[in-house]
Amino acid sequence: MSKILYGLYDMMNIAAFRLNQDDQFELITLSPTWLKHFTPVGTNKGSIVHLDGIFPFLDCFVAEAFEVWEAQTETPHRSGPWVDFTPEGEEFPLEATAVCIDGECVLVIQDLGEEYYTEASRLQTFRDQALEKERLEIAITEQTQQIRRREEEIAMTLLAASGHRDHETAEHVRRIGLYAEALAKELGWDLEKAADLRIAAAMHDIGKIGIPDSILLKPGKLTQEEFEIMKGHPAIGADMLNKTRIPLLNMAAQVSLCHHERWDGTGYPKGLKGEEIPIEARITTIVDVYDALVHKRVYKKASSEQAALKLMAQMVGKHFDPALFQLFVKNLPKMQRIRQAYSEPTRRTTISA
């Protein structure tokens, strides 16, 4: 072996061993300084070294090494780093590699030196940073959930206030939200946005809080003048809700303002047409009409579901977004389950939309 190779092995802190015919390890390089801490005095090139007695970690790795040697593969198989201690307690980070070279079974052991500790320190820093990032993400998630709970509390308080002045029941409001959330999920919305719509859709008529009782609670048909006043409730609701930076209430403001717009542009208050109408409002419009038709009110009888769907089908392309109505019909079993779970006058069970 050339002096250049010996110099390289020494510089790289490498000790190379050949497996002889007696399955013993023969040192084929000069003994590096680190190895002398583990082996008997005089160990050098050509010495037989009982590695299993010196490096207990190697016992398992040598079993893997024999598989490499038996397969005569030239692809190096590494043990991965480990740390061993000399009888004096000095620490050495080592790594072994098994390989076949020209038919010889070779085991190379290297002292990784300071590079090992540098890399270990880098990985520890990376781990600490990852743990800190995870901790911060958990804290942010918890804070976000707290904010969301407060937003929902605000929304439900507003709903409770408006519910005292109108014929709508708490179950109707709850169903509207659950219908809308179910459709949003079918559209592929993320769970948070779908949950926002559950609350926002339930607030669609919140502007009625600003309509006089003489009109809001009138049991008969409204006069044209009264109807014009009633038509103001979408704008009243939007004005109540859009003065915040809360995304949930901003969505609710859009639903309130636009839930009486029609697909063909004949709705109010702005006469928006087609996709000019926010999709949140288009969804709410469909489920609100459905729920109103199939439930009894003081001013009307409940329609059968068949009759309700027949009437709604006639409104497609005029009142309703055709694609959303198809999606609604496709998911009618989900709507029916929500109706049953939140039937009037009391809720009998619970359901997840």
UniProtKB/TrEMBL annotation:
<dbReference type="InterPro" id="IPR052020">
    <property type="entry name" value="Cyclic_di-GMP/3'3'-cGAMP_PDE"/>
</dbReference>
<dbReference type="Pfam" id="PF13487">
    <property type="entry name" value="HD_5"/>
</dbReference>
<dbReference type="GO" id="GO:0008081">
    <property type="term" value="F:phosphoric diester hydrolase activity"/>
</dbReference>
<feature type="domain" description="HD-GYP">
    <location>
        <begin position="147"/>
        <end position="344"/>
    </location>
</feature>
<keyword id="KW-0378">Hydrolase</keyword>
<dbReference type="InterPro" id="IPR003607">
    <property type="entry name" value="HD/PDEase_dom"/>
</dbReference>
<dbReference type="InterPro" id="IPR037522">
    <property type="entry name" value="HD_GYP_dom"/>
</dbReference>
<protein>
    <submittedName>
        <fullName>Metal-dependent phosphohydrolase</fullName>
    </submittedName>
</protein>
